[in-house]
Amino acid sequence: MLNFRHLAGATRYSFSGLQRAWKGEQAFRHEVLVLGLIIILLFVLRPGPAWSAGLLAAWICVMIVELLNSALEEAFDLSSPEYNIHVKHGKDMASAAVFLGVILNILLWFFMLWDGFRSQP
Predict the structure, then answer these.
(1) Which domain range does residue 30 map to?
(2) 67 near 49, Cβ under 8 Å?
(3) Cβ–Cβ under 8 Å, residues 101 and 62
(4) How far lies 22's CA from each of 10, 18, 32, 94, 108, in Å?
(5) How many domains does the chain have?
(6) CA gap 59, 24 in Å, rounded
(7) CA distance 86 to 29
(8) Residue 33 in domain
């Protein structure tokens, strides 16, 4: 049976996390701005439903990884406030995950635009 109280609590925690990311993480605010630009570009370019869904999903994945990166950074800072090479490595790897997501998105946009130009008469 569906536990609505649990669902409501989980939803509150999720919105609290989004609010914290918005207020405290400049990179997340930038990614929300890029999401808005992507939505506008998709309305202008009209690449088709499959490309649109893929491009939106891929960027939302970047935002998901950014949230995980920020959560890891907070946990690392709490566990070891002084400089620690292992903490630095963990933070760098989490940042690299976001970077790879951005690279993936650039490649997807390139291929979508390439496909669109190729299919025009």
Answers:
(1) 25-118
(2) no
(3) yes
(4) 18, 6, 9, 19, 26
(5) 1
(6) 20
(7) 28
(8) yes
Q: Is residue 19 part of a domain?
A: no
Per-residue DSSP letter, 1: -
Please indicate, yes or no, if residue 51 is contained in any of the structural domains.
yes
Provide the b/e sequence for 82-120 (b: ≥16 CB within 10 Å): eeeeebeebeeebbeebeebbeebeebbeebeeeeeeee
| Residue 80: per-residue pLDDT | 84
Q: What is the mean pLDDT of residues 57-62?
A: 98
Summarised one tens digit per residue, pLDDT across range 9-57 is: 999 999 999 999 999 999 999 999 999 999 999 999 999 999 999 999 9
Task: Compute CA distances 100 → 63, 66, 84, 94, 106, whole Å.
Answer: 12, 11, 24, 10, 10
Cβ neighbours of residue 34 closer than 8 Å, sequence gap 6 or more:
59
Say which CATH number the domain at 80 has: 1.10.287.3610
Say if 6 falls within a structural domain: no
Rounded-to-integer distance, Cα 51 and Cα 47, Å: 6
